[in-house]
């Protein structure tokens, strides 16, 4: 992907790259990884969720319960808030370095392509009012040792999200974390519904987005050879960086991960329409 870097700055020690709007369509070799547009169902389709049945929520694993951390989501429901949608409302939280936020996942082994349609707003506004309030898709290396044996420097994950990052405008955020060192990129977004896609083929990961009525655009490509065969894959949401940034500035990781921040100013409501899993097409 060709994109002009408009600004490179430091967010409390984290390198952030702000990009102009990506304009490149998928190259042929990337198209072979991420397409077709509507792939036929395969064995991974058993992981799909159209969020039409409230009982389907029980089929998702919660990161917090799976690894023994407090639940940092104020509300997660299917159909109760809005019929036919997964509604995800996080407390003040953030995914960055060793810091955790709400995450629902299914375990996926091998190559995959996961796609979702999501709309991200504030509680009363089209764009969230708090910085770094976004929701989307993550693929993460599991940590079955859990909170009791937790150590710094072990996080391996990648995600693409929609919402707002460092301003009061719609943005797309991509973030790649290797051994708990995060590098994030921000590019212009739009209000309303957006489709997000995360593709794995071997060590190659592609992050794509498609606004309503537009074509797929490659937002980021990363090589991640250290990722294990089986990953946690699913929706994430986080909000209100300013209320919790002191934990990051002073490197208070365990203190942050071990509590639920109910005294912040969270402002994010994510509505997921559906999520679908497929195997990516083979390279020519």
From TrEMBL:
UniProt xrefs under Gene3D superfamilies: 2.60.120.200
Top-level lineage group: Bacteria
Protein name: DUF1349 domain-containing protein
Species this protein is from: Nannocystis punicea
């Amino acid at each position: 992907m060709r994109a002009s870097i408009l600004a490179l700055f430091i967010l409390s020690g984290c390198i952030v790259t702000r990009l102009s709007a990506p304009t490149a369509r998928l190259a042929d070799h990337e198209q072979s990884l991420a397409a077709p547009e509507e792939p036929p169902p395969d064995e991974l389709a058993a992981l799909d969720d159209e969020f039409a049945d409230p009982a389907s929520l029980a089929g998702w694993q919660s990161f917090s319960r799976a690894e023994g951390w407090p639940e940092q989501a104020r509300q997660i429901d299917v159909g109760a808030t809005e019929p036919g949608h997964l509604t995800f409302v996080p407390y003040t939280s953030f995914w960055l370095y060793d810091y955790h936020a709400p995450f629902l996942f299914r375990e996926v082994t091998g190559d995959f392509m996961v796609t979702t349609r999501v709309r991200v707003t504030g509680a009363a506004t089209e764009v969230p009012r708090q910085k770094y309030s976004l929701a989307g898709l993550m693929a993460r290396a599991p940590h079955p040792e859990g909170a009791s044996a937790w150590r710094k420097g072990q996080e391996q994950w990648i995600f693409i999200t929609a919402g707002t990052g460092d301003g009061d405008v719609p943005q797309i955020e991509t973030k790649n974390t290797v051994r708990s060192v995060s590098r994030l990129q921000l590019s212009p977004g739009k209000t309303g519904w957006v489709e997000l896609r995360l593709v794995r083929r071997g060590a190659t990961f592609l992050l794509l987005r498609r606004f309503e009525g537009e074509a797929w655009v490659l937002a980021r490509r990363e090589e991640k050879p250290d990722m294990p065969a089986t990953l946690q894959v699913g929706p994430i949401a986080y909000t209100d960086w300013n209320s919790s940034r002191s934990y990051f500035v002073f490197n208070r990781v365990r203190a942050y991960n071990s509590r639920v921040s109910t005294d912040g100013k969270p402002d994010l409501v994510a509505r997921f329409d559906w999520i679908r899993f497929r195997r990516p097409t083979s390279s020519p």
